[in-house]
Specification:
Shape: elongated
Largest sheet: 4 strands, antiparallel
Structural class: alpha+beta
Strand order of the largest sheet: 4-5-3-6
Distance between the termini: 75 Å
Length: 246
């Protein structure tokens, strides 16, 4: 929902580059978002749900100002806040300016976010989401990168995964001793990796092209080229023989 709506809002309202729930929550809870909008929905967490100091200070659990990220209850809270704020953004973007100058009811939210109903988000897939009660969107996602070790060095999956994980969720699939395909979570993650590895001393990273980087495609192309060359050679030999016999 956030990825599809990002381009519809100007920078004063929706100026974030979020790809995860925690990042979206931080953006939606930011005063820049709430103060730029009229009558934004207010969401308050019950005090009893906030973790105690001992839990907060644990180095093994990622935390923010109110609770532990990836803890089921707190993730539900973040999801609800993000959903309501995004619904508010969608609604005021659709309403006339005069109509958005008053508190908006949840009925208005339901009406304007109906196109997103029953859509389930997917990550690292060829489409952004599936629809539970209709046709799925077109497969238009190309979030794959090709990485190659320079100077014919060996590519280590563990090392590559460690280097790329700071830019987002990635999956590494080796296709040879020094080459691999990297499946990233979204285009933002792909762009970050491409920018960071433009002048890397050990690895070269480019967008994945199946005709250039797929082993199967290369084999098919080489087989076709060899067969074509063989057919042309055979035709030339036959033509020369005919000319000699005549």
């Amino acid at each position: 929902m956030a990825l599809q709506l990002r381009k519809e809002f100007d920078d004063t309202v929706h100026s974030y580059d979020a790809t995860s729930l925690s990042e979206l929550h931080a953006a939606m809870a930011d005063p820049k978002c709430t103060t730029a909008l009229l009558f934004p929905p207010t969401v308050a967490m019950a005090v009893s749900h906030i973790k105690d100091d001992e839990c907060r200070q644990s180095n093994e659990i990622e935390t923010d100002t109110l609770g532990n990220i990836h803890e089921a209850g707190y993730d539900s809270y973040m999801c609800g806040l993000v959903f309501l704020r995004l619904a508010h953004l969608v609604t005021i973007n659709k309403l006339e300016p005069a109509l958005s100058a008053h508190p908006i009811s949840f009925y208005d939210y339901e009406h304007h976010i109906a196109p997103f109903k029953n859509h389930v988000n997917l990550i690292r897939a060829t489409l952004h989401n599936i629809c539970l009660d209709g046709a799925d969107p077109e497969h238009n996602r190309t979030d794959r990168l090709f990485i190659k070790a320079k100077k014919s060095a060996l590519l280590r999956s563990e090392e590559v995964s460690f280097l790329l994980s700071s830019y987002g969720a990635v999956d590494i699939s080796k296709i040879s001793q020094n080459k691999a395909v990297v499946i990233v979570s979204n285009q933002i993650c792909a762009r970050r990796i491409l920018e960071a590895f433009q002048s890397h001393d050990k690895y070269a990273v480019v967008r994945y092209n199946p005709w250039r980087h797929s082993i199967l495609a290369n084999r098919i192309l080489w087989t076709g080229a060899i067969l074509s060359a063989g057919i042309c050679t055979l035709a030339l030999i036959r033509n020369v023989k005919k000319q000699l016999l005549s």
